[in-house]
């Protein structure tokens, strides 16, 4: 069961839809490990990637996912686009409609911009991150990584640590992990904790050691300096001392706790490099691998719904 026309966020998805997508992603993990990695799920379809913010992991992952599914993939260089010349987002949507794409992957610095585009185009839209709002495929790939590592995606204690206030990754993970009935903890300095965080059904800790006690999953977040306009932290050295993940703090988590990070990492600021590279605890490279499979599954499911919708409209016109 997956009825969505677009993938704009985790918040609108039902738990069953999340499970459907992750189950399909499992099959794409297997496909991606084969010598021949191609499918024809998107054969004949056009995918346009529009990244108004710089991205390496997410854009390359979506591009690879589309190509492995057989789509014609185009990357639009938004840094040099008409938007820079004053074109509005609505005008951009009208231009895109004229190209008849089937799938549109969008990253934008403004919260809600991707939703606005989705209202104006005649194709399926995937949110690759919008402002501080959501980053749904990151949460889905995190969910798949946790499920594969722990054998389940429910009744786990998950500590999300660091720059919560500026993180769309944290927001999407809170929605996803909350829907799947996990115990959630937010850990970080008060300056990087959103107002009202205690009303989200989470436990909030300013003390990293208290927040990590008994945790099954330790999810570190990047310090998003590009979104900061003031003194949110005393210094990187002090931040690492109090909220960076090192062996001493990790020892307080469950003995089989896994360590995650969405990347890119600031080693020695958010996480000790030795822990990041520890194949027994860190699943950071698994997250990268799961990203391609999850994005393949998301585009496959949206494409199925799009074909069904177009087929129904064609039948109506012929009736």
UniProtKB/TrEMBL annotation:
Pathway: Pyrimidine metabolism; UMP biosynthesis via de novo pathway; (S)-dihydroorotate from bicarbonate: step 2/3. Signal peptide: none annotated. L-aspartate binds at residues 85, 168, 222. GO terms for biological process: 'de novo' pyrimidine nucleobase biosynthetic process; 'de novo' UMP biosynthetic process; amino acid metabolic process. It is an enzyme of class 2 (transferase). Carbamoyl phosphate binds at residues 57-58, 107, 135, 138, 263-264. The keyword Transferase applies. Keywords: Pyrimidine biosynthesis, Transferase. PROSITE patterns: CARBAMOYLTRANSFERASE. Residues 5-147 form the Aspartate/ornithine carbamoyltransferase carbamoyl-P binding domain. InterPro entries: Asp/Orn_carbamoyltranf_P-bd, Asp/Orn_carbamoylTrfase, Asp/Orn_carbamoylTrfase_sf, Asp_carbamoyltransf, Asp_carbamoyltransf_Asp/Orn-bd. Its EC number is 2.1.3.2. Residues 156-301 form the Aspartate/ornithine carbamoyltransferase Asp/Orn-binding domain. It catalyses: carbamoyl phosphate + L-aspartate = N-carbamoyl-L-aspartate + phosphate + H(+). One of its GO terms (molecular function) is aspartate carbamoyltransferase activity. One of its GO terms (cellular component) is cytosol. Pfam families: OTCace, OTCace_N. The keyword Transferase applies. Catalyzes the condensation of carbamoyl phosphate and aspartate to form carbamoyl aspartate and inorganic phosphate, the committed step in the de novo pyrimidine nucleotide biosynthesis pathway. Heterododecamer (2C3:3R2) of six catalytic PyrB chains organized as two trimers (C3), and six regulatory PyrI chains organized as three dimers (R2). This is Aspartate carbamoyltransferase. The lineage of its organism: Bacteria, Pseudomonadati, Pseudomonadota, Alphaproteobacteria, Rhodobacterales.
């Amino acid at each position: 069961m997956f009825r969505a026309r677009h993938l704009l966020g985790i918040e609108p998805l039902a738990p069953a839809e999340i499970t459907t997508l992750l189950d399909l992603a499992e099959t794409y993990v297997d496909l991606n490990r084969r010598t021949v990695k191609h499918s024809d799920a998107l054969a004949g379809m056009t995918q346009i990637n529009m990244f108004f913010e710089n991205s390496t992991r997410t854009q390359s992952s979506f591009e690879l996912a589309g190509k492995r599914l057989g789509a014609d993939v185009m990357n639009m260089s938004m840094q040099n686009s008409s938007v820079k010349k004053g074109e509005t987002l609505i005008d951009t949507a009208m231009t895109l409609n004229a190209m008849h794409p089937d799938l549109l992957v969008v990253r934008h610095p403004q919260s809600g911009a991707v939703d606005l585009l989705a209202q104006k185009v005649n194709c399926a839209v995937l949110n690759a991150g919008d402002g501080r709002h959501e980053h749904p495929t990151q949460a889905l790939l995190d969910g798949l990584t946790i499920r594969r590592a722990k054998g389940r995606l429910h009744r786990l204690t998950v500590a999300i640590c660091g720059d919560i206030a500026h993180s769309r990754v944290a927001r999407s993970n809170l929605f996803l992990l909350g829907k799947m009935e996990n115990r959630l903890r937010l850990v970080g300095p008060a300056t990087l904790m959103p107002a009202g965080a205690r009303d989200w059904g989470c436990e909030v800790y300013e003390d990293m050691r208290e927040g990590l006690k008994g945790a099954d999953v330790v999810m570190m977040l990047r310090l998003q300096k590009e979104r900061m306009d003031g003194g949110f932290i005393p210094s990187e050295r002090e931040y690492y001392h109090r909220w960076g993940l090192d062996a001493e703090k990790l020892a307080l988590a469950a003995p089989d706790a896994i360590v995650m990070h969405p990347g890119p990492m600031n080693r020695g600021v958010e996480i000790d490099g030795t822990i990041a590279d520890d194949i027994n605890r860190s699943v950071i490279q698994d997250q990268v691998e799961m990203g391609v499979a999850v994005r393949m599954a998301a585009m496959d499911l949206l494409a199925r719904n799009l074909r069904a919708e177009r087929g129904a409209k064609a039948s109506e016109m012929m009736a």
